[in-house]
Amino acid sequence: MSQENLELVRAICAPWQRGDFGSVEWADPQIEFGFADGPTPGTWTGLAAMSEAWRAALGAFDRLEMEVDEYISVDGEHVLVLTTNTGRGKTSGFELGELRTRSANLFRIRDGKVTKLVAYWDRQRALEAVGLSD
CATH number of the domain at 2-129, out of 3.40.718.10, 3.10.450.50, 3.30.1330.30, 3.40.50.720? Predict the structure, then answer.
């Protein structure tokens, strides 16, 4: 099952790397979504709430690009995706690329659907959450 989960997450992240965050067919209708840290930490339930939270977060940027560094199958239902993000904020004009923001997304998959997705701005915090920190 974890190989199937890994392939599902790869299919989700492929359009994200092209800047396309519009698809949600991979998500359970009652998905638990959250930002564990960063500028807008919080949790939301359901597709509409997740979409609105993503829209608000992405709306703070003129440009935001995500590159997958590594996919880690944590266990039978969790996949951790390590990413590097670059971008430009709308308000500050600050180039995130200068910082090379290293983030992560933790997916929980059950019955072929993502039932929980937690986005971490701080990659180390995500690694700690799944017991993989140094």
Answer: 3.10.450.50
